[in-house]
Amino acid sequence: MTKRVGILGYPLGHSISPVFQQVAFDHYSMDVKYEAWETPSDRLKDVVDGLRHADFLGANVTIPHKEAVLTMMDEMENLAREIGAVNTIVNREGKLWGYNTDAQGFLRALRKDGEFDPWGKHVIILGAGGAARAVSVAILRVGARSITIFNRTLERAQKLASTLRLLNAEAYALSWRREGLKEAISRCDLVVNCTSMGMKHSPGEGGTPLEAAIIPRGIVIFDLVYNPIETPLLMEARKAGARPIGGLPMLVYQGAASFELWTGKKAPLDVMFASAKKALHNEKA
Ligand code: NAP
Predict the structure, then answer these.
(1) CA of 195 to the centre of ligand 1 (A)
(2) What is the pLDDT of residues 111-123, one digit of tens each?
(3) Rounded Cα distance, 39 and 7, in Å
(4) Rounded to an integer, what distance in angstroms lies between the CA atom of residue 198 and that of residue 234?
(5) Theoretical Cys-Cys bridge with 197: which of 114, 166, 204, 218, CB 3.0 to 4.6 Å?
(6) Which residues form the pocket of ligand 1, taking CB atoms under 6 Å from any ligand atom?
(7) What is the atom index within ligand 1 of the atom nearest the CA of 254?
(8) Is domain 3-100+251-284 given the CATH code 3.20.20.70 in the classification?
(9) Pairing, β 171-175 against β 146-151
């Protein structure tokens, strides 16, 4: 009997998860179909409850449901609880387990693709949504020295900084002004863009949160945005002589971690990367 798994979000038009997850199941010749389940908020509870059926392995969860599904889980790993968001659901004999693999995907990309060790480092986070929360908690857990959050809506940055201080972090929230950004960036080791600025098909398409003139040479600039692969921010980082990391490796690593939770098998990273890149490339054409 074909097992089913899929991504829950709304809207889902441009998600490439179904493409690079399906090739992973096909790689092992598993009888599993990965589907796109576009789910408005008023249907979320019913759809999540349905995942308890033996046909389902579980689900990925994306914008805007990562926080809402938290209360619908039977069990949860500590990391997802700390972050306050679930991006992976595993159905274990009718019980739903909640995980957050964004944090793991981010750290793996940072270390492997950026060759960056966050221990003792000063970090700037741009944005204060779900991704910013996962990234901040992840980076704190591996010993970052301080986190400074800039967000268009200052109150959201303040709320995130307060949450991080409860985890004993040295955390600050600042309003998004060029002079403040310039000054803070001159003293940091890593900037992570967790806003959707620069993301294709979003209102921020074509935009960059920073220009080259205020990016110091040698720091690491990690852009979570993965579509386009080469974002306006990554171009500015290169111009400034900074070290750019794009969002695609994180996307594939978080998906690979989900695959391993559902199947217990090692994710075939090479085929997942190749198909994710192809999907983004084809979209361009
Ligand atoms: P979210 O919860 O909706 O948060 C969006 C953030 O972007 C908020 O801080 C928002 O600021 C800010 N923002 C949006 N448009 C902006 C603009 N024009 N100017 C300045 N700030 C703007 O979304 P999320 O889940 O955190 O995701 C954020 C981005 O990360 C998305 O592009 C998503 O695709 C990407 N992401 C990538 C991965 C990966 O694996 N590579 C994983 C997760 C997320 P306000 O608070 O002021 O609205």
Answers:
(1) 3
(2) 999 999 999 999 9
(3) 9
(4) 10
(5) 204
(6) 63, 102, 105, 127-132, 151-153, 156, 194-197, 199, 203-204, 224-226, 247, 250-251, 254
(7) 40
(8) no
(9) parallel
3, 45, 66, 95: the catalytic one is: 66
State yes or no: is 66 an active-site residue: yes
CA angle 175, 245, 182 (to 5 degrees): 30
Partners of residue 89 on adjacent β-strands: 59, 98
Question: Considering the domain 114-245 in this protein, what is its CATH number?
Answer: 3.40.50.720
Q: Return the residue whose CA atom lies nearest to atom 34 of ligand 1.
A: 225
d(Cα 11, Cα 107) in Å, to the nearest integer? 27
Q: Where are the domains of the chain?
A: 3-100+251-284, 114-245
Ligand 1 atom closest to 66 (CA): 25
What is the tens place of the pLDDT at every residue in 21-71?
A: 999 999 999 999 999 999 999 999 999 999 999 999 999 999 999 999 999
| Closest protein CA for atom 20 of ligand 1 | 152
